[in-house]
Design brief:
Length: 119
């Protein structure tokens, strides 16, 4: 059974209750539920503030760091590909070569995504 003591659930209330509205100093009524300025404030929302270029201190941007990390790991794996080739271990050469190629491709893609997302 529904309790009719709450005026917000009653169908004959006919509008906002005194609890829903607050009176300002100049006499205008303001809805507490619909205070969107608080939720849309760019100072309180770090996602909407992504237009700044100084996300990471230093000489490199985030997209350059992401690309550089992928290319560095791919470069560090290259000697292991050469050692496996000299030993005649062709399955290991193929798997490490595929890993290097995937790291390079992922570095390009993630670098573009971070550049588009974070500027």
């Amino acid at each position: 059974m529904a309790d009719d003591s709450d005026t917000r659930t009653r169908t004959d209330a006919g509008g906002p209750t005194a609890e829903d509205t607050a009176s300002d100093a100049d006499g205008t009524a303001d809805r507490r539920d619909d205070d969107l300025d608080e939720y849309l404030d760019p100072e309180l929302d770090p996602v909407s503030e992504s237009g700044s270029d100084d996300t990471i201190p230093g000489p490199f941007s985030l997209s350059q760091l992401v690309r550089g990390l992928h290319f560095l790991v791919a470069g560090l794996l290259t000697p292991f590909v050469w050692f496996a080739y000299q030993d005649g271990n062709l399955p290991q050469v193929a798997s490490l070569g595929l890993l290097v190629a995937l790291l390079l491709a992922a570095g390009v893609v993630t670098g573009r995504i971070t550049e588009r997302r974070f500027g």
